[in-house]
């Protein structure tokens, strides 16, 4: 994918009305700090257009990145961030749910899981939710560079089993450091948003 143009086009906070962009969208969901914004930067070939942080809870709005004027990558706030109040968590949860529920243009939801860790209860719930709403789930195993090569297969198996993935579902390993997996992810995005 050649990126001719990438811009942060729309930012939605808790009280914002969700937009109808009129263009295909794919969204990136996952636990706080799993690497959603870093993946989006990697896909856009931008170092820091999407703000990232070592501290979880960085992305607190739904951010719509417009790519080449033809589709959107949607960065969602992470779940499971311990340091916000329960009330705040619920508001974000509702906002994410509302987006996933009402978007006319959403084509697929990418679920990011840290390749080092077993999927959490929240991850499993998110996976179920994606399936339940009829979206194509694509699992991205992030932070691939943090594992030794010899550990990778074992960890991919752990993720598949943890989520109880259906046979034939793909898990794409990705590293924001080396960009490994980028081309494969773009292929999937293009196949889901073309035509
Ligand atoms: P929230 O916005 O808080 O939900 O987090 P996020 O999922 O957007 O995570 P973000 O992209 O901000 O990354 C969190 C931290 O993990 C940052 O310090 C990143 O540099 C680091 N990180 C993300 N992806 C990778 C990766 O592939 N490899 C390594 N080594 N670090 C990564
Ligand atoms: Mg983020």
Automatic annotation (TrEMBL):
<comment type="similarity">
    <text>Belongs to the TRAFAC class TrmE-Era-EngA-EngB-Septin-like GTPase superfamily. EngB GTPase family.</text>
</comment>
<protein>
    <recommendedName>
        <fullName>Probable GTP-binding protein EngB</fullName>
    </recommendedName>
</protein>
<keyword id="KW-0342">GTP-binding</keyword>
<keyword id="KW-0131">Cell cycle</keyword>
<keyword id="KW-0547">Nucleotide-binding</keyword>
<dbReference type="Pfam" id="PF01926">
    <property type="entry name" value="MMR_HSR1"/>
</dbReference>
<comment type="function">
    <text>Necessary for normal cell division and for the maintenance of normal septation.</text>
</comment>
<dbReference type="InterPro" id="IPR027417">
    <property type="entry name" value="P-loop_NTPase"/>
</dbReference>
<feature type="domain" description="EngB-type G">
    <location>
        <begin position="22"/>
        <end position="195"/>
    </location>
</feature>
<dbReference type="InterPro" id="IPR019987">
    <property type="entry name" value="GTP-bd_ribosome_bio_YsxC"/>
</dbReference>
<keyword id="KW-0460">Magnesium</keyword>
<dbReference type="InterPro" id="IPR030393">
    <property type="entry name" value="G_ENGB_dom"/>
</dbReference>
<keyword id="KW-0717">Septation</keyword>
<keyword id="KW-0479">Metal-binding</keyword>
<dbReference type="InterPro" id="IPR006073">
    <property type="entry name" value="GTP-bd"/>
</dbReference>
<keyword id="KW-0132">Cell division</keyword>
């Amino acid at each position: 994918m050649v990126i001719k143009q990438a811009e942060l086009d729309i930012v939605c906070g808790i009280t914002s009305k969700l937009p109808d962009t009129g263009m295909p969208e794919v969204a990136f969901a996952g636990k706080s700090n799993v690497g959603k914004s870093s993946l989006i930067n990697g896909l856009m070939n931008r170092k820091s257009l999407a703000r990232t942080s070592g501290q979880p809870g960085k992305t607190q709005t739904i951010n719509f990145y417009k790519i080449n004027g033809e589709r959107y990558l949607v960065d969602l706030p992470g779940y499971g961030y311990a340091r916000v109040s329960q009330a705040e968590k619920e508001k974000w949860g509702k906002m994410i749910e509302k987006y996933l529920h009402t978007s006319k243009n959403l084509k697929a939801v990418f679920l990011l899981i840290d390749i080092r860790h077993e999927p959490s209860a929240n991850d499993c719930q998110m996976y179920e939710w994606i399936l339940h709403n009829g979206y194509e789930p694509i699992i991205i195993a992030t932070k691939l560079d943090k594992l030794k090569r010899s550990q990778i297969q074992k960890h991919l198996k752990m993720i598949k089993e943890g989520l109880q993935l259906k046979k034939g579902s793909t898990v794409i390993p990705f590293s924001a450091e080396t960009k490994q997996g980028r081309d494969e992810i773009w292929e999937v995005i293009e196949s889901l948003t073309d035509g």
